[in-house]
Design goal:
Elements lengths: L1 H22 L8 H22 L10 H25 L4 H12 L3 H40 L11 H5 L2 H14 L6 H11 L2 H14 L3 H4 L7 H19 L7 H12 L5 H9 L3 H26 L1
Helix pairs in contact: 1-5, 1-9, 1-14, 2-5, 2-7, 2-8, 2-9, 3-4, 3-5, 3-11, 3-12, 4-5, 4-11, 4-14, 5-9, 5-12, 5-13, 11-12, 11-14, 12-14, 13-14
Protein backbone atom coordinates (compact mmCIF):
# COMPACT_ATOMS: atom_id res chain seq x y z
CA UNK A 1 0.00 0.00 0.00
CA UNK A 2 2.95 2.37 0.56
CA UNK A 3 3.73 2.41 -3.19
CA UNK A 4 0.11 3.33 -4.01
CA UNK A 5 -0.01 6.05 -1.34
CA UNK A 6 3.31 7.49 -2.49
CA UNK A 7 2.16 7.63 -6.14
CA UNK A 8 -1.09 9.36 -5.19
CA UNK A 9 0.55 11.90 -2.88
CA UNK A 10 3.25 12.74 -5.46
CA UNK A 11 0.65 13.53 -8.09
CA UNK A 12 -1.34 15.67 -5.69
CA UNK A 13 1.85 17.50 -4.72
CA UNK A 14 1.98 18.56 -8.38
CA UNK A 15 -1.52 20.05 -8.00
CA UNK A 16 -0.16 22.23 -5.18
CA UNK A 17 2.76 23.20 -7.43
CA UNK A 18 0.35 24.22 -10.20
CA UNK A 19 -1.75 26.20 -7.75
CA UNK A 20 1.34 27.99 -6.41
CA UNK A 21 2.80 28.95 -9.78
CA UNK A 22 -0.65 30.08 -10.94
CA UNK A 23 -1.15 32.33 -7.92
CA UNK A 24 2.37 33.72 -8.28
CA UNK A 25 1.75 34.53 -11.94
CA UNK A 26 4.64 32.37 -13.14
CA UNK A 27 2.19 30.90 -15.66
CA UNK A 28 -0.30 33.45 -16.98
CA UNK A 29 -4.02 32.70 -16.62
CA UNK A 30 -4.71 33.16 -20.32
CA UNK A 31 -2.30 30.33 -21.16
CA UNK A 32 -4.05 27.74 -18.95
CA UNK A 33 -6.65 26.79 -21.62
CA UNK A 34 -3.78 26.15 -24.06
CA UNK A 35 -2.08 23.82 -21.58
CA UNK A 36 -5.41 22.07 -21.00
CA UNK A 37 -5.79 21.52 -24.74
CA UNK A 38 -2.22 20.21 -24.94
CA UNK A 39 -3.05 17.55 -22.35
CA UNK A 40 -6.54 16.61 -23.56
CA UNK A 41 -5.85 16.71 -27.29
CA UNK A 42 -2.22 15.58 -27.53
CA UNK A 43 -0.41 14.00 -24.59
CA UNK A 44 -3.39 12.19 -22.99
CA UNK A 45 -4.54 10.47 -26.21
CA UNK A 46 -0.94 9.38 -26.86
CA UNK A 47 -0.72 7.97 -23.32
CA UNK A 48 -4.01 6.09 -23.76
CA UNK A 49 -2.83 4.67 -27.09
CA UNK A 50 0.46 3.56 -25.54
CA UNK A 51 -1.31 1.92 -22.58
CA UNK A 52 -3.45 -0.15 -24.98
CA UNK A 53 -0.62 -1.10 -27.33
CA UNK A 54 1.45 -2.05 -24.29
CA UNK A 55 -0.98 -4.95 -23.72
CA UNK A 56 0.31 -6.72 -26.86
CA UNK A 57 1.74 -10.11 -25.97
CA UNK A 58 0.37 -9.94 -22.43
CA UNK A 59 -2.30 -12.26 -21.09
CA UNK A 60 -4.60 -9.89 -19.25
CA UNK A 61 -6.31 -11.24 -16.15
CA UNK A 62 -9.05 -8.59 -16.39
CA UNK A 63 -12.27 -9.51 -18.26
CA UNK A 64 -12.93 -6.31 -20.16
CA UNK A 65 -16.73 -6.66 -20.05
CA UNK A 66 -16.59 -6.21 -16.29
CA UNK A 67 -15.36 -2.62 -16.57
CA UNK A 68 -18.36 -1.70 -18.72
CA UNK A 69 -20.83 -3.41 -16.35
CA UNK A 70 -19.14 -1.79 -13.36
CA UNK A 71 -19.13 1.71 -14.88
CA UNK A 72 -22.84 1.45 -15.73
CA UNK A 73 -23.58 0.39 -12.13
CA UNK A 74 -21.44 3.28 -10.86
CA UNK A 75 -23.38 5.85 -12.89
CA UNK A 76 -26.73 4.38 -11.84
CA UNK A 77 -25.76 4.51 -8.15
CA UNK A 78 -24.48 8.07 -8.41
CA UNK A 79 -27.56 9.27 -10.34
CA UNK A 80 -30.00 7.83 -7.77
CA UNK A 81 -27.96 9.15 -4.86
CA UNK A 82 -27.68 12.67 -6.31
CA UNK A 83 -31.38 12.89 -7.19
CA UNK A 84 -32.27 12.05 -3.59
CA UNK A 85 -29.75 14.52 -2.15
CA UNK A 86 -30.87 17.56 -4.19
CA UNK A 87 -34.39 16.99 -2.89
CA UNK A 88 -33.35 16.51 0.74
CA UNK A 89 -31.03 19.54 0.76
CA UNK A 90 -33.50 21.65 -1.23
CA UNK A 91 -30.86 22.69 -3.73
CA UNK A 92 -32.04 25.70 -5.81
CA UNK A 93 -33.40 24.74 -9.22
CA UNK A 94 -30.66 26.55 -11.13
CA UNK A 95 -28.02 24.51 -9.25
CA UNK A 96 -29.67 21.07 -9.31
CA UNK A 97 -28.16 20.11 -12.66
CA UNK A 98 -24.67 21.05 -11.45
CA UNK A 99 -25.08 18.94 -8.31
CA UNK A 100 -26.31 15.86 -10.20
CA UNK A 101 -23.61 16.27 -12.87
CA UNK A 102 -20.95 16.67 -10.17
CA UNK A 103 -22.04 13.52 -8.36
CA UNK A 104 -22.43 11.42 -11.50
CA UNK A 105 -19.43 12.31 -13.63
CA UNK A 106 -15.85 12.19 -12.38
CA UNK A 107 -12.66 13.77 -13.66
CA UNK A 108 -11.42 10.68 -15.49
CA UNK A 109 -9.50 12.62 -18.11
CA UNK A 110 -7.25 14.96 -16.16
CA UNK A 111 -6.97 12.94 -12.95
CA UNK A 112 -8.28 9.40 -13.44
CA UNK A 113 -6.02 8.37 -16.30
CA UNK A 114 -2.72 9.65 -14.84
CA UNK A 115 -3.60 8.31 -11.38
CA UNK A 116 -4.50 4.90 -12.82
CA UNK A 117 -1.22 4.86 -14.75
CA UNK A 118 0.88 5.83 -11.75
CA UNK A 119 -0.83 3.52 -9.26
CA UNK A 120 -1.84 0.51 -11.34
CA UNK A 121 0.41 0.67 -14.41
CA UNK A 122 -0.51 0.52 -18.10
CA UNK A 123 -3.22 -2.14 -17.69
CA UNK A 124 -4.93 -0.01 -15.04
CA UNK A 125 -4.86 3.00 -17.34
CA UNK A 126 -6.19 0.83 -20.16
CA UNK A 127 -9.22 -0.16 -18.07
CA UNK A 128 -9.75 3.45 -16.98
CA UNK A 129 -9.67 4.53 -20.66
CA UNK A 130 -12.34 1.94 -21.52
CA UNK A 131 -14.59 3.23 -18.75
CA UNK A 132 -13.87 6.78 -19.88
CA UNK A 133 -15.53 6.08 -23.24
CA UNK A 134 -18.88 5.70 -21.45
CA UNK A 135 -18.10 8.76 -19.33
CA UNK A 136 -17.51 10.89 -22.46
CA UNK A 137 -20.79 9.69 -23.94
CA UNK A 138 -22.64 10.75 -20.79
CA UNK A 139 -20.89 14.13 -20.44
CA UNK A 140 -21.96 15.24 -23.93
CA UNK A 141 -25.47 13.83 -23.72
CA UNK A 142 -26.94 13.55 -20.21
CA UNK A 143 -24.35 16.03 -18.90
CA UNK A 144 -25.40 18.82 -21.27
CA UNK A 145 -29.06 18.16 -20.47
CA UNK A 146 -28.34 18.45 -16.74
CA UNK A 147 -26.30 21.66 -17.02
CA UNK A 148 -29.00 23.34 -19.12
CA UNK A 149 -31.84 22.01 -16.90
CA UNK A 150 -34.23 24.75 -15.71
CA UNK A 151 -32.71 27.14 -18.27
CA UNK A 152 -34.51 28.24 -21.48
CA UNK A 153 -32.22 26.19 -23.71
CA UNK A 154 -33.19 23.35 -26.02
CA UNK A 155 -30.07 21.45 -27.00
CA UNK A 156 -30.23 18.53 -29.41
CA UNK A 157 -27.89 15.63 -28.73
CA UNK A 158 -24.82 15.83 -30.94
CA UNK A 159 -23.58 12.34 -31.79
CA UNK A 160 -20.29 13.72 -33.07
CA UNK A 161 -19.55 15.46 -29.74
CA UNK A 162 -20.45 12.27 -27.88
CA UNK A 163 -18.21 9.97 -29.89
CA UNK A 164 -15.52 11.94 -31.67
CA UNK A 165 -12.82 13.23 -29.35
CA UNK A 166 -9.12 12.55 -29.29
CA UNK A 167 -9.18 10.17 -26.33
CA UNK A 168 -11.93 7.99 -27.83
CA UNK A 169 -10.08 8.00 -31.16
CA UNK A 170 -6.93 6.86 -29.33
CA UNK A 171 -8.92 3.98 -27.78
CA UNK A 172 -10.20 2.85 -31.20
CA UNK A 173 -6.81 3.12 -32.92
CA UNK A 174 -5.14 1.41 -29.96
CA UNK A 175 -7.58 -1.50 -30.21
CA UNK A 176 -6.89 -1.80 -33.94
CA UNK A 177 -3.17 -2.16 -33.18
CA UNK A 178 -3.84 -4.50 -30.26
CA UNK A 179 -6.30 -6.85 -31.99
CA UNK A 180 -4.37 -6.78 -35.26
CA UNK A 181 -1.12 -7.34 -33.38
CA UNK A 182 0.38 -4.47 -35.40
CA UNK A 183 3.87 -3.51 -34.17
CA UNK A 184 4.76 0.14 -33.61
CA UNK A 185 8.09 1.05 -35.29
CA UNK A 186 10.90 1.64 -32.78
CA UNK A 187 11.40 5.32 -33.63
CA UNK A 188 7.67 6.03 -33.41
CA UNK A 189 7.48 4.02 -30.18
CA UNK A 190 10.25 6.11 -28.60
CA UNK A 191 8.64 9.37 -29.74
CA UNK A 192 5.24 8.32 -28.35
CA UNK A 193 6.90 7.27 -25.08
CA UNK A 194 8.49 10.74 -24.71
CA UNK A 195 5.11 12.43 -25.26
CA UNK A 196 3.31 9.95 -22.99
CA UNK A 197 5.71 10.56 -20.12
CA UNK A 198 4.66 14.22 -20.02
CA UNK A 199 1.02 13.46 -19.24
CA UNK A 200 0.86 12.56 -15.55
CA UNK A 201 2.88 15.49 -14.25
CA UNK A 202 1.54 18.11 -16.65
CA UNK A 203 -2.11 17.15 -16.16
CA UNK A 204 -1.82 17.52 -12.37
CA UNK A 205 -0.07 20.90 -12.74
CA UNK A 206 -2.87 22.05 -15.07
CA UNK A 207 -5.48 21.05 -12.46
CA UNK A 208 -3.63 23.21 -9.91
CA UNK A 209 -3.39 26.09 -12.39
CA UNK A 210 -7.14 25.89 -13.02
CA UNK A 211 -7.83 26.02 -9.27
CA UNK A 212 -5.60 29.09 -8.94
CA UNK A 213 -7.99 31.11 -11.13
CA UNK A 214 -10.87 30.86 -8.65
CA UNK A 215 -11.48 33.15 -5.68
CA UNK A 216 -11.37 30.81 -2.67
CA UNK A 217 -13.60 33.03 -0.52
CA UNK A 218 -16.40 32.85 -3.10
CA UNK A 219 -16.23 29.05 -3.10
CA UNK A 220 -16.74 28.72 0.65
CA UNK A 221 -19.57 31.24 1.01
CA UNK A 222 -22.24 28.68 0.12
CA UNK A 223 -22.30 26.39 3.17
CA UNK A 224 -24.52 23.88 1.36
CA UNK A 225 -21.67 23.26 -1.08
CA UNK A 226 -19.71 21.49 1.70
CA UNK A 227 -22.11 18.55 1.38
CA UNK A 228 -21.02 18.01 -2.22
CA UNK A 229 -17.47 16.75 -1.55
CA UNK A 230 -18.78 14.51 1.25
CA UNK A 231 -21.30 13.01 -1.14
CA UNK A 232 -19.02 12.79 -4.18
CA UNK A 233 -15.75 11.82 -2.52
CA UNK A 234 -16.77 9.67 0.48
CA UNK A 235 -20.38 8.46 0.34
CA UNK A 236 -20.30 7.46 -3.34
CA UNK A 237 -17.05 5.40 -3.23
CA UNK A 238 -18.22 3.64 -0.06
CA UNK A 239 -21.56 2.88 -1.73
CA UNK A 240 -19.75 1.53 -4.80
CA UNK A 241 -17.58 -0.70 -2.60
CA UNK A 242 -20.73 -2.11 -1.00
CA UNK A 243 -22.44 -2.70 -4.36
CA UNK A 244 -19.37 -4.39 -5.87
CA UNK A 245 -19.02 -6.69 -2.88
CA UNK A 246 -22.69 -7.70 -3.24
CA UNK A 247 -22.47 -8.67 -6.94
CA UNK A 248 -23.47 -12.27 -7.77
CA UNK A 249 -20.14 -12.85 -9.54
CA UNK A 250 -16.54 -12.34 -8.48
CA UNK A 251 -15.13 -9.19 -9.99
CA UNK A 252 -11.52 -9.01 -11.12
CA UNK A 253 -9.42 -7.24 -8.45
CA UNK A 254 -7.86 -4.65 -10.79
CA UNK A 255 -11.24 -3.82 -12.35
CA UNK A 256 -12.70 -3.36 -8.87
CA UNK A 257 -9.87 -1.02 -7.86
CA UNK A 258 -10.29 1.07 -11.03
CA UNK A 259 -14.04 1.41 -10.41
CA UNK A 260 -13.44 2.52 -6.82
CA UNK A 261 -10.81 5.03 -7.99
CA UNK A 262 -13.31 6.36 -10.56
CA UNK A 263 -15.94 6.77 -7.83
CA UNK A 264 -13.43 8.55 -5.56
CA UNK A 265 -12.35 11.16 -8.13
CA UNK A 266 -13.54 14.78 -8.00
CA UNK A 267 -16.21 16.14 -10.34
CA UNK A 268 -15.54 16.35 -14.06
CA UNK A 269 -14.00 19.69 -14.97
CA UNK A 270 -15.81 19.64 -18.32
CA UNK A 271 -18.86 21.16 -16.63
CA UNK A 272 -17.09 24.52 -16.35
CA UNK A 273 -16.54 24.62 -20.12
CA UNK A 274 -20.10 23.43 -20.88
CA UNK A 275 -21.74 26.05 -18.63
CA UNK A 276 -19.53 28.74 -20.20
CA UNK A 277 -20.61 27.60 -23.66
CA UNK A 278 -24.35 27.62 -22.85
CA UNK A 279 -24.24 30.63 -20.46
CA UNK A 280 -25.85 28.74 -17.59
CA UNK A 281 -24.66 28.45 -13.95
CA UNK A 282 -20.90 28.81 -14.47
CA UNK A 283 -20.37 30.02 -10.90
CA UNK A 284 -21.90 26.89 -9.33
CA UNK A 285 -20.02 24.63 -11.77
CA UNK A 286 -16.67 26.27 -10.99
CA UNK A 287 -17.31 26.02 -7.23
CA UNK A 288 -18.21 22.33 -7.56
CA UNK A 289 -15.03 21.55 -9.49
CA UNK A 290 -12.87 23.54 -7.10
CA UNK A 291 -14.23 22.18 -3.83
CA UNK A 292 -14.32 18.52 -4.91
CA UNK A 293 -10.81 18.75 -6.38
CA UNK A 294 -9.48 20.48 -3.26
CA UNK A 295 -10.88 17.89 -0.83
CA UNK A 296 -9.91 14.99 -3.09
CA UNK A 297 -6.29 15.67 -2.17
CA UNK A 298 -7.15 14.09 1.19
CA UNK A 299 -10.01 11.76 0.31
CA UNK A 300 -8.56 9.91 -2.71
CA UNK A 301 -5.57 8.54 -0.76
CA UNK A 302 -7.92 7.75 2.17
CA UNK A 303 -10.45 5.88 0.03
CA UNK A 304 -7.79 3.95 -1.89
CA UNK A 305 -6.15 2.99 1.42
CA UNK A 306 -9.47 1.57 2.63
CA UNK A 307 -10.14 -0.16 -0.70
CA UNK A 308 -6.70 -1.74 -1.04
Amino acid sequence: MSVVATSVFLLFALIFLGFFIGKRGIVQKNSIPDLSNLVLKVTMPVTVFCSIVDQQGKSSSSPYWQIFVGVILLYLCSALLSLAVVKVLRVPKDEQGVWIFSCMLSNNGFMGLPLALSVFGSEGMFLMALGNVIGNLLIFSVGIKLLTWHFPIKEKLNLRKMLVNNINIAVVVGFIFLLGNIPVPDIADQLLAYISNITSGLSMIVVGLSLSRLAIREVFRDKRMFFLPVLRLLVLPLLVMAVLSALPFEMDALTRDILILTAALPSASAQSMITEQYHTNTSAASRAVFITTLFSIVTVPLVMTIAL
